[in-house]
Amino acid sequence: MPVKSGKQYIERINSQSVPCWYKGELVTGKRSEHLAFKGLMETQAQLYDMQSDPLLAGKMTYESPVDGKPVGLSFLPPTTVDDLRKRRGAMSVWSNAHHGFLGRSPDYMNTAIMSFYTAADLLNELSPQYAENLRNYYAFCRDNDITLSHAFIQPHASKISGQMDATEDAIAAKVVERTEDGLIITGAFMMATQGATCDEILVYPSPSPAPFDDENPFAFAFAIPNDLPGITLVCRDTYASESRFNFPLSSRYEEMDNLVIFDHVLVPHDRIFFAGNEEMSSRLFSGSNFHIHAGHQVLCRYIAKTEFILGTLQLLTDTLDLASEAHVVEKTARVLAGLESLKSLAIAAEAGAIPDGRGFILPAPQPLMAANILYPKLYPEMIEIIQLMASSGMIMVPQEEEFKTDAATHLDIYLRGTDMTAQQRTSLFRLIWELGAGSFGGRQTQFERFFFGNSITVSNRLYSTYSGVDTYRQLVSHFLANTHR
Amino acid sequence: MPVKSGKQYIERINSQSVPCWYKGELVTGKRSEHLAFKGLMETQAQLYDMQSDPLLAGKMTYESPVDGKPVGLSFLPPTTVDDLRKRRGAMSVWSNAHHGFLGRSPDYMNTAIMSFYTAADLLNELSPQYAENLRNYYAFCRDNDITLSHAFIQPHASKISGQMDATEDAIAAKVVERTEDGLIITGAFMMATQGATCDEILVYPSPSPAPFDDENPFAFAFAIPNDLPGITLVCRDTYASESRFNFPLSSRYEEMDNLVIFDHVLVPHDRIFFAGNEEMSSRLFSGSNFHIHAGHQVLCRYIAKTEFILGTLQLLTDTLDLASEAHVVEKTARVLAGLESLKSLAIAAEAGAIPDGRGFILPAPQPLMAANILYPKLYPEMIEIIQLMASSGMIMVPQEEEFKTDAATHLDIYLRGTDMTAQQRTSLFRLIWELGAGSFGGRQTQFERFFFGNSITVSNRLYSTYSGVDTYRQLVSHFLANTHR
Amino acid sequence: MPVKSGKQYIERINSQSVPCWYKGELVTGKRSEHLAFKGLMETQAQLYDMQSDPLLAGKMTYESPVDGKPVGLSFLPPTTVDDLRKRRGAMSVWSNAHHGFLGRSPDYMNTAIMSFYTAADLLNELSPQYAENLRNYYAFCRDNDITLSHAFIQPHASKISGQMDATEDAIAAKVVERTEDGLIITGAFMMATQGATCDEILVYPSPSPAPFDDENPFAFAFAIPNDLPGITLVCRDTYASESRFNFPLSSRYEEMDNLVIFDHVLVPHDRIFFAGNEEMSSRLFSGSNFHIHAGHQVLCRYIAKTEFILGTLQLLTDTLDLASEAHVVEKTARVLAGLESLKSLAIAAEAGAIPDGRGFILPAPQPLMAANILYPKLYPEMIEIIQLMASSGMIMVPQEEEFKTDAATHLDIYLRGTDMTAQQRTSLFRLIWELGAGSFGGRQTQFERFFFGNSITVSNRLYSTYSGVDTYRQLVSHFLANTHR
Amino acid sequence: MPVKSGKQYIERINSQSVPCWYKGELVTGKRSEHLAFKGLMETQAQLYDMQSDPLLAGKMTYESPVDGKPVGLSFLPPTTVDDLRKRRGAMSVWSNAHHGFLGRSPDYMNTAIMSFYTAADLLNELSPQYAENLRNYYAFCRDNDITLSHAFIQPHASKISGQMDATEDAIAAKVVERTEDGLIITGAFMMATQGATCDEILVYPSPSPAPFDDENPFAFAFAIPNDLPGITLVCRDTYASESRFNFPLSSRYEEMDNLVIFDHVLVPHDRIFFAGNEEMSSRLFSGSNFHIHAGHQVLCRYIAKTEFILGTLQLLTDTLDLASEAHVVEKTARVLAGLESLKSLAIAAEAGAIPDGRGFILPAPQPLMAANILYPKLYPEMIEIIQLMASSGMIMVPQEEEFKTDAATHLDIYLRGTDMTAQQRTSLFRLIWELGAGSFGGRQTQFERFFFGNSITVSNRLYSTYSGVDTYRQLVSHFLANTHR
Predict the structure, then answer these.
(1) Contact B186/B176 with Cβ under 8 angstroms?
(2) Domain HpaB/PvcC/4-BUDH C-terminal: where (chains A, B, C, D) (predicted)?
(3) Is D143 helix (H, G, I), strand (E, B) or coil?
(4) Please, which of A5, B344, D113, D409 could form a disulfide with D344 given CB 3.0 to 4.6 Å?
(5) Taking a C-beta distance cutoff of 8 angstroms, is the pair D106, D46 a contact?
């Protein structure tokens, strides 16, 4: 089966049966009709449909090596710079469609599983079966256009001192039993985004501080359907609302986050990529160049989102007649300079692509890592710019229903903007409110800040690529050595 | 009638009949039972009850000059430094009760009307009747513990060029007719906070750019019951929810903002403080020292809010075991230094009090204006600190209902914190989410940023108090003049 | 005559006779032996010699269209993307040689005169002779490897109100007489950097606010030898010192700034590029794409300078054993992310080159303008990082002479660093002191901040390139228009 | 002998004979005539003379308990709030005289030795003799108006790993021998400011990481004349110049920093305050409340310096006609808000004074520690404001000698400012250049940033005073506990 349609995407999810708690109640009925999932599923269905759209298919797909049927380009393991450009083309089509607000649009996890696939050889060392499992799983995802979620952050409780000491009592996710059929896993993961609206979950815990031994119960990676027995999902409250006018962003892009609980879940052997080896956990991760391949996808998203915010700023400037204010010029130019930087980093990442040593090609890591350092600062800064420009006007914004009341004739007069009707202006300010003060925007800001880890982690990633580079040190040493003529 | 009880406060509001639109429907039934007003009214009723609480009454009231009955201390026109201290005492009791989250706790507008009262003499110039109206109105508010709202920001549309040119078509609020019974007013005001839960509204538009003439239809100030014929209120969507666990802040402190529409409202002559004179609009405002008296109240609120955020940070630090991290020490110390500054500015404002030239005393303006410059930066900075410390953990926070489901036993294990049960920790993170990512917090940040105007306006207020001060210029000129020995 | 040698460069300057005041005395004798000019001239001579270095000549020169002799690549008017790359190659060789500390290395003004040349056609409108003059002058500079300075900022006094009103009394530079031999010019220019160590000065005042008329005496551009009768130069104090150990930067890179006074200077007709037409002043400037061509050169300089600072930071980190401190990782990563951005912007500027409509090619303006917005913030931030990391250690730094005293044995022990001798470490800290606290560094910071104008001016440049771009506005308008399903 | 005169101050220093290396040469001759010390000594002499000035003596001195003769108020151990006010009065007179630019004006070390004196009792535990030594030394300083320097920072080399391991080889300052006459000390200290222009040096190394034992050779504190045999001073290069016009700040306020080398210096027993006990090193330091008493002095300095910078900004605004620019209003208001905060913190520190438990009174620690957190950020921010406002105009500033040349008539025209002659304006810009770009200003910025330690250290000081405070934690815990009605 090749790329799936939006309809297929929805049907598969609706047919799942995992227990999923929302505000004290089990989600029953079709997920695609539940407020917490509806808008996102509609948006995502549109994304999937684009892959079969005759006008876009050429840009969005390639032929599966298995049967030649069209599969999503974000699954393509790049071997040439042109592959990287094609991948960016496809990923940008999606990013432009969701304006960068989906952190987990399908290309993200497609890229993730592709990146692990490129490093499958590493697993041979532990067992050729593991390598085979990973390759098969990648092909399965690609050829069935599987929608994946990702579970990796463990609850803070798993780190509370004392609780790590005894393996028995450890809260961290672990193998509690090994059976003929597979491993029995117990534990929990915070923040599996779209956990309730995916087909499968990739589980790959961050390395544990547990003692290093051959049968380390905390070290593993696997992927399974998200509705195996023993799995329970818990939702946070949704930020979504029905009305697209009132909640233009959350009504389309609200991605539910889930706490995923594993209570003696049996993971079949053929779905295990490795187990018991702490060192492999790190090696596979870094060997897959996950942050680099994914960083390429993320940069497409950054660019689309920045463009959307730029357009919002421009409309706000227009309707408030601010174009000639010096501080508005400076603030907007800050956004423009950010946008130019992001676009340039993407060009440079492709222009500087390097072989990964296993037959694939890698975008230049450093421009991508630089983007991961810049954007967690740029995004909140852009939101602050919107807040400063919109000032208190972004708070007292009525809802669309008000325009159908007796007060409407007044609103039509008092709420109009320069070159905008009152409804248009209100619609713009609903958007600005969602970005700059609403709950959806609050999560987006937090999400961008911590997307690839906290500031130290992200800094370290770039820093370490320079740690072996002596060019600049030597340049200054040489300069200083010449201080005597 | 002396200070009112919480019950009286609620009854008065419930008995009002102004058309108030919420999400396309007229609010009917008791406001105190409507989700959009309920929590706030309950909180505010508690504040009013404190004035009659035997343990607090002495600190919260003084004797009305009319009949010796206890009236609220925030109505007291200060004539001594001790009066300032008493005022601060009473205002702090309230601020500590609502932790600074109510921008319009009763003392704010009580102080406002008191400040205008201290400048009533200025109105004699136009007409002794105006001065008398203002004095009477102040006494009426004080002796009946009137809950006031404030309407002053006009819609942006009133400034769109072209529309100001002809008085006839002007969108800005204006006198459209003068009758024997009073003035007929048409126009609209954004952001009358608590407009739907007050007794009366003080209307005092910001000075208009209209031509200066004796019968300027845009210049006036008056106060009226908020349910006179011709008045319509429009609400934004509420951020409040029922559950105190899930929404600890908005369930108590959500103050609805209203668009207030005047459509040919008759304002009786005895409620008009001046009309037709643009210059008086500015003179009464600055002569009343509104920003200084109100700044004193606001500073009490800043301090209480900062203490609450500090406590939140400390609990977060405890439960995440972060006390020994250098960046946490630095961030917390930033909050502490801010808190110490605010407290010191309050002490200095009272220590440096000056006569206002009309028999009253004024806290030193400059420390208060400094606080109004510092807090709009400090508050967002503190919220950012919370966001940076809580990281992604503040997003995936379940609701209280989840603790009553089958998943509860898992949550009890996986969501616990250091020295906190899972429910306690979740409760803390709900608070942090509301402060740092939810809609309620989004409005708070925006509100603090623009409370007394934008950055330029607030800066100008302090700057202008120094513009006549040559001390420092001369000190440097003198220093430079000594550059030849 | 083709590219000149360092020796020729020095001889030409030494043979000049313009009155030049330094600390109350006329500079007499060879400029190359005067402390204020010596280090710079030595450095600059090395740059000129590189053009004839057999190993570098191919990368630094091209054949003059006049006689096929090698002339400097920075004079090349680019017509292909490859030309842009070649230009960057040559400019980077020089930038790497002076590590970006020379704001006026020869390629800067070479590029400037080249850019004006590309727009010479515009002058035909006023007079074919002007166009011819400009073309001839460009060829003269190219074929004689002329060292140019640039005078354009007028004294603040020229703007003091009242003094602009009457042309007669105006302080701004102006034509005071027109004679058969040329124009007689009187006025002054601040900040002609390297004014005392150039062959010629290009004079092109910023547009004046003077009334627009055909014989506007304030509008002109010309180039002349810097020692015509009537010219006087005034120096600021030098920051340079003899010792390369003690003052590693200023002993090499201190570029003297000059106030250039014109007192009835006769500018010959064939050196005038236009005169009397205010509008042409703006049109030639923007038509020449000066900021874009020069921006390309400047970006080479930014990159070299950032690399030098990075190396300095790395050595500092090494010698203070700070590599494992989280804040050092974050700070260094900030520099790395900046460096990656600058490099990417250069790649993108070339990848996106566009025709200029007159047969030449232009690097993409927007990445270059973005760099001009980013660097004035990045540079001071990098210096602050150095200050924060070096802390008080960068203050108490002895001089090289101390290592020859009786105290030397003590210094050898007490001043050593990790993997560095006391002399090496001291040498590094002298560099850090010059960058972060000395006068040379103080000027560099100020220079980078204001290189292409203040923040508003530089922001406006990028902002205006987007002002006609509706793509993003429409994208958001379209998004909002879809808010009703 | 009571307070000394400026003349006595100079004579004492001129009579000293310690080997002091400056740029490879021993300083011989009178220090008061050497460029590196001259301006500072002249300024400091003026400060000392103020104590005997009949108009100021009452404000600057109190009666010595020994003989009733007038001694400096900064030596007064405060026992009442009024004492604190008197101390501030005297310290402010000096701060206003040197505009806060002297980090080591005499009151700083006078206060330091006073603070150690208040904790002398602690030393009884080790030996009553130590306590007696400290009390005697304090009285000696007070009654002889001793000018003290302070040595406490050890070279970085003392921390390089490996070198700490063996006591024998340790680079850190240590007791190398104990004799009948005293202790023999070897080691070095960085940054003894004014080390070459003091009478005595207080040596009190920061606690060493050495093993804790009773005869710890690294733990001690003592005070000695700065010219005992075995002491050598090494200077950095001076930033001072002769001309007050050209270098208005450094010609008066340049305080030389010294590296102080101890090579087998014999410290007499009666000058030792403790030795051999690492724990006492910390206890005496914190018990003396050094940072609090000194913080009170430092705050006087902060206020005077901020006022001077404010005046400079005002003059700059005037001469550049910038008063109406919004960004100038905002920037200046930032300085004003800082100044108001500092003044308020001083008022609050005194208003909240507390007993120290040993019969003395202590200014409230927290406002002072808050000031120590705020100023290291405020000062560089103010300097940046000056840089941003003065822009490139602060670079091309001629020297006073230029006004005596043939170019003077031109300068008089071209360099004048609004309401300023060219000389006055140039004089102002020399000051601005020294503050914002010169070496003197570079040291000042670094000095203020690290005055009381780096950001973590200073933050920790305030943080730790709150660590036992549960008020705010409990307030929020209580709030959360009420989330169920």
Answers:
(1) yes
(2) 283-480
(3) helix
(4) B344
(5) no
Q: Rounded mean pLDDT of B427-441?
A: 98
pLDDT confidence of residue C160: 80
Instruction: Give C325 to chain B, closest Cα distance, Å.
Output: 11
Tell me which chain A residue has its CA closest to the CA of residue B230.
Answer: A407
Q: Give Cβ neighbours of residue A186 (< 8 Å, ≥ 6 apart).
A: A173, A174, A176, A262, A263, A264, A265
Mean of the per-residue pLDDT values of chain C: 94
What's the sign of the alpha-carbon dihedral B236, B241, B245, B251?
positive
Structure tokens at C1: 């005559």
Per-residue pLDDT tens for C338-370?
Answer: 999 999 999 999 999 999 999 999 999 999 999
Helix (H, G, I), strand (E, B) or coil at B257: strand
* Whether C367 and A374 lie within 8 Å, measured CB to CB: no
**Please, what's the largest Cα pairwise distance for chain A?**
87
User: Which chains border B (3 or more CB–CB pairs < 8 Å)?
Assistant: A, C, D
A50, A94 contact by CB (below 8 A): yes
Taking the Cβ of residue D326 and every Cβ of chain B, the question of whether any pair is shorter than 8 Å is answered with yes
Choose the closest CB to C373 out of A337, A345, A462. A337
Q: Which residues contact C442 (CB under 8 A, 6 or more apart)?
A: D433, D436, D437, D438, D439, D441, D442
Going by C-alpha positions, the residue among A262, A256, A189 that lies closest to residue A32 is A256
CA distance C128 to A397: 61
Contacts of B326 in chain C (CB under 8 A): 326-327
Partners of C347 on chain A (C-beta within 8 Å) are 344, 347-348, 351
pLDDT per residue as tens digits for the range A196-213: 999 999 999 976 655 556
Secondary structure letter of residue C310 according to DSSP: H
pLDDT in tens, A109-124: 999 999 999 999 999 9
CB contact under 8 A, A475 and C307: yes
What are the structural domains of chain C?
6-286 (2.40.110.10), 289-473 (1.20.140.10)
D389–C contact, CB cutoff 8 A: no
* Residue closest to C298 by CA, chosen among C238, C410, C234, C376: C376
Cα-trace Rg, chain A: 24
B83-112 residues touching D, CB cutoff 8 A: 99
- Please write the tens of the pLDDT for every residue from D381-413: 999 999 999 998 999 999 999 999 999 999 999
pLDDT for the residue numbered B360: 98
Least Cα separation, residue A64 to chain B (angstroms): 37
User: If you count DSSP H runs as helices and E runs as strands, how many of each does chain C have, helices first?
Assistant: 16, 14
Render C123-176 in DSSP notation, one character per residue. Answer: GGGT-HHHHHHHHHHHHHHHHHT--EEEE-BPPGGGGSTTTTTSGGG--S-EEE
Q: What tens digit of pLDDT does each residue of A68-105 get?
A: 999 999 999 999 999 999 999 999 999 999 999 999 99
| D396 → closest Cβ in C257, C380, C437 | C257
Q: Which residues of D touch B483 (CB under 8 A)?
A: 244-245, 248, 427
pLDDT (mean) for D56-65: 97
Tokens 């899930």 belong to which residue? B246
**How far is residue B293's CA from residue B271's CA, in Å, rounded to a whole number?**
23
DSSP conformation class of A325: -
The token pair that represents B414 in the structure block: 């996986």
Contacts of B464 (CB under 8 A, 6+ apart): none
Q: How many CB atoms lie within 10 A of CB A456?
A: 15
The yes-or-no verdict on residue B163 having pLDDT over 60 is: no
Question: For A247, which residue in chain B has the nearest alpha carbon?
Answer: B237
User: Which DSSP symbol is given to A437?
Assistant: T
> Cα distance from A370 to chain C (closest Cα, Å)?
4
Confidence of residue D378 (pLDDT cuts 50, 70, 90): very high
- Mean pLDDT value across residues C324-336: 96
